Here is the input.
Amino acid sequence: MPDTNLKIERSSTLRQQATEMLRKAILEDRFRPGEHLVERKLCDLLGVSRTSVREALRHLETEGLIDMVPYKGPVVATISEAEAREIYQVRTALEGFAGRLFAIHASENLVKKLRLVADKMAQAAKAKEFNLVLATKSEFYEIIFEGTGNDTLADLIQQLNARVWRLRRLSLMTPNRNIEMLPEVEEIVAAAEAGDPERMSSACKYHIEQALVQVLSALQDTNT
Here is the structure.
């Protein structure tokens, strides 16, 4: 268990805050895959009741971040190579479609925002500011989803968000991926600026396919 103080403010619902804090800790690898989460210790770390912790754990289970193991209880979920392939197959289909819709529907202002965020991502990657790369990558996708004009599509993609974030982090931690991905991101933005749906769809798909190669390599290293 990490010794960082995770105690939360009592402004919004305790369950919501507990969920957000535990999600953040898992996504940042402060709780490692396969680690057993002891409710009593989580209560002490968060400063909330066991009821709030249990509700938070149940919610994180629906996000695929927690597994409930018989006779053991909650453990941080481990993502297998097969599951990663499945997640990225779905991402390829959904985000390829999202790219197509963005090129058709996005406002000029959103296209400009996409360019600005891509430039910020490139600067962060070259400066080896890993956390900033992750943050700007999430912002990059949020702009694309916003520009699709299709809230249902965005909602479907967001359902995978927690597991995708873990895998994205794993991908970007592989040597040189931060730099290697930049031409892929540039092609997505260039297609958006050209207003070319086919080109942007293909660019989004290719980017995800390349990320999957890195994810599978990282998972193999982790499991050996």
